[in-house]
Specification:
alpha/beta, 2-enoyl-CoA Hydratase, Chain A, domain 1, 6-stranded mixed β-sheet, 4-stranded mixed β-sheet, 9 helices
């Protein structure tokens, strides 16, 4: 697996001082599109990006003109996972995932690039997720000495448990067809916009209150997982990221070598 496929953006990359927002907002016929726009960092989940995305979601949720939200990206990566240079606090990431699930508008993921680690959790939190066949996915946390603790909150209730065990334990890469088979994606196709066209058309035809109440019914089981497990998994994430194994894994990542545990 190449360095670009690991769980996080490289903290050795030069600092980027963004003159523009990290989230680009556009709107068409009641659909608010939020694009993760830090391609030079592979749209890694930094504290800044997580904060801006949370603000954009709040605005969309409160705007009566917005019928649905599309979450997408610029560049070739949807999200590389946690940004090791400017990581969000584990509880901030939990709050973001819960915000997507609780938003009174459907959130639709549109993916045309790679998704790794924490980015997979972001995808799993969305109500509907579609990707092009060029997209790839991996839960790479174990390869740098941590665990997919926080991202498991939306993943466990929504994906095939046997398949999830394989991909969480091995860090293997999977393609869009496999991601759809195990429930990580709703659908995949050669042209993701063609896949999503009838979805967005259907959401535009639905009554806003009916959408909100239907989403509440569909997300109840996921939110039960958050209520039960979020505190413990947040603590686990913080502990593992501070561990000697994580330090070795991240150092190996930066030094372009295998960590010491590889046999």
């Amino acid at each position: 697996m190449s360095r670009s496929e690991y769980a996080a953006a490289d903290p050795a990359d030069p600092p980027v001082h963004d003159p523009v927002p990290l989230i680009v907002r556009t709107r068409a016929r009641g659909v608010e599109t939020l694009s993760l726009d830090a391609p030079e960092r592979r749209n890694a989940l930094s504290a800044a990006l997580v904060g801006e995305l949370a603000d954009a979601l709040t605005d969309a949720g409160e705007d009566t003109a917005v019928r649905a939200v599309v979450l997408t990206h610029t560049g070739t990566t949807f999200s590389a996972g946690a940004d090791l240079r400017d990581p969000p606090a584990p509880d901030a990431l939990v709050a973001l995932l819960r915000q997507i699930i609780e938003l009174p508008k459907p959130v639709v993921a549109r993916v045309t690039g790679h998704v790794r680690a924490g980015g997979v959790g972001l995808l799993a939190a969305c109500d509907i997720a579609a990707a092009s066949h060029t997209a790839t996915f991996a839960l790479t946390e174990v390869r740098i000495g941590v665990a997919p603790a926080v991202v498991s909150l939306p993943l466990l209730p929504r994906t095939d448990p046997r398949a999830l065990a394989r991909y969480c334990l091995t860090g293997e890469r999977l393609d869009a067809a496999e991601a759809a088979r195990i429930g990580l994606l709703t659908a995949a196709g050669d042209d993701v916009d063609e896949v999503l066209a009838p979805v967005l058309d259907g959401l535009r035809k639905a009554a806003p209150e009916a959408l909100a109440e239907t989403k509440r019914l569909l997300t109840a089981r996921v939110l039960e997982t958050f209520d039960r497990d979020a505190a413990g998994l947040t603590a686990l994430s913080a502990r593992l990221f501070a561990s000697a194994a994580a330090r070795e894994g991240m150092t190996a990542f930066l030094e372009r070598r295998d960590p010491e545990w590889v046999v």
